[in-house]
Amino acid sequence: MRTFRAAPAASAARWASWSLAGVLAGGAGLATSYFLAMAMTLRDSPVLAVAELVIRLAPGALVEKAIATVGHQDKPLLVIGVLVVTGLLFAWAGRLRSRSWWQPLLVYAGLAAVGSYAVADQRGAGFVDQVPVVVGLLTWAGLLEVLTAPLRAGAPSEEATAPGVRAPDGSRRGFLLGGLLVAGVSVAVGLAGRVVGQGRRQVEQTRRLLRLADVSAPVVPRRATLDLDGLSPWETPADDFYLVHTAIVVPAIAPDDWTLRLHGMVDRELELSYRDLLARQHTEDWITLNCVSNPVGGPLIGNAWWSGIRLADLLREAGVHADADAVLQTSQDGWTCGTPLAALTDDRPAMLALAMNGRPLPIDHGFPVRTIVPGLYGYVSACKWVVDLEVTQFSRISAYWTQRGWSERGPVKLSSRIDVPREGAEVAAGTVRMGGVAWAQHVGIESVEVAVDGGGWQRAEISHPPTTDAWVQWVASARLDPGEHRVKVRCTDRHGLVQTGVERDVLPDGATGWHTVGFTVTGS
After folding, report:
1. With CB atoms 3.0 to 4.6 Å apart as the test, which of 124, 362, 441, 457 could cross-link to 449 if both were Cys?
2. In terms of Cα–Cα distance, which of 523, 399, 412, 403 is closest to 471?
3. Chain-centre distance for alpha carbon 119
4. Closest to 94 (Cα-Cα) out of 28, 170, 159
């Protein structure tokens, strides 16, 4: 009678190989997400975000007990615990892959949901912060397929499942070589992320400690606001301010490493350091910025207190040639925009901005220096991380977005938005209050009107800020019966121009049309 003793060992080795494949693929996914988090954001890696989420969700008594038991090692131990649990899930996903292709998807979905929620739960998190989670997940899933390919190829057939039958040496060798390669690259990617992250975080630490003596804290002007819950606040916090840029990795520039070159059609070329700007006279103002890609009623707009150096003063010092009509701005990352020279030299507060809402610019918003030009869309004026200003002519240049079909000049279009009520909201019957914002930077808003259910235009109350370069708030009221209703809004600027109701897409120079909202009045 024949006996086979190798079967249990062979089976254990086979399961260990599938589990190891899961751990190696998952580890590569974690390394990738860590690198991207360090390179693209100033936030924690997804693993640390999950650990912080656990702390926030844990009962206070449990947290206190943990601190009392292990002292200040509670957080490192928690991170280790998260990694251990994650590693076990990686191993499980590997074993599930030995059965079918779809079963690991359950583990992918669960970990992706937890990681995505943990990252999104951080203050000020946006779409970019989700990129490390998504790419890490795809790396994990892809490498699991690659690493398990030799195991699937070497899996014994039904005729070869007798105890003691070994998988072909070629498949085992392929798996081991692939595993070693993935492990080595994962370690290298993780170390690279640490190096990249340290540089960015040193710049962020410098920014946080920077004190700008001539920058004042924002104070909301008298008569700039109206009283209605749900209105956009007068000041948009930096964390909530819209972000649009083309940089995959946002430049992180130390102030001491930053210089600006102003050249081209000028009498005297200027080269300025950050310290040079600090020594100059500052200007400050409330300025509303909006993106040309903002649809009618969209969110790509914000109002902030900007502090910096007037561009008109620098251009006057350089001595601009009479036949120049444009300034080509270039960012540290190579992005360019062509700005009308007249908008930089007239009486508007166009500036090299150093601060936003009383603090040094956030890195994502252009630290250490960016340009601000009221009355122009950002694609022709708002150059973050600006390092070069070339005085020139429009006939000689082609900037980033104009090469892609957008118009050359980009003046902001007169527009308005409804904030209250929101689309699909339910409100009580009776007097319904409505409100929102309107803007016509560097011209100013004269009036705002609303029309309900196709009726005539009724004038709304508007705020009266001391500047034409910022938005105004508006509020209107109407007595409405229960049922479905629609309200639309339009505004008129101080030159008498009425906002058009003709609907046009954002390309090539900004959307037009009246923002309209549907809502339901309930009750009697």
Report:
1. 457
2. 412
3. 13
4. 28
Domain boundary among 404, 423, 450: 404
Q: Write out pLDDT tens, residues 223-243.
A: 999 999 999 999 999 999 998
- Domain annotation covers residue 367: yes
* Pair of tokens at residue 499: 């906002």
Rounded distance, CA 256 to CA 494, Å? Answer: 44
Mean of the pLDDT values across residues 364-381? 97
**How many CA atoms lie within 13 Å of 244's alpha carbon, on the beta-carbon side?**
18
- Residue 271's closest CA among 257, 260, 280? 260
Q: Answer yes or no: do 35 and 165 share one domain.
A: yes
Same domain, 249 and 320: yes
Same domain for 420 and 398? no
One domain, residues 364 and 431: no
pLDDT in tens, 480-505: 999 999 999 999 999 999 999 999 99
State how many domains the chain has: 3
Distances (CA, A) of 34 to 107, 204, 215, 511: 20, 18, 36, 39
Cis amide prior to 421 (ω within 30 degrees): yes
> Do the strands 426-428 and 516-522 form a parallel or antiparallel pair, or are they unpaired?
parallel
pLDDT confidence tier of residue 72, bands split at 50, 70 and 90: low
Which 8-state DSSP code applies to residue 266?
Answer: B
Cβ contact 503:409 at 8 Å: no
- Name the phi and psi angles at 358, rounded to 5: 85, 5
Omega cis (within 30) before 360: no
pTM over 0.85: no
**Rounded distance between C-alpha atoms, residue 90 and residue 111, angstroms:** 10
Q: Which domain holds residue 387?
A: 238-404
Residue 258 to residues 274, 283, 303, 373, Cα–Cα distance (Å)? 6, 21, 26, 21
**Encoded amino acid at 177, one letter:** L
Q: How far apart are the first and last CA of the chain?
A: 91
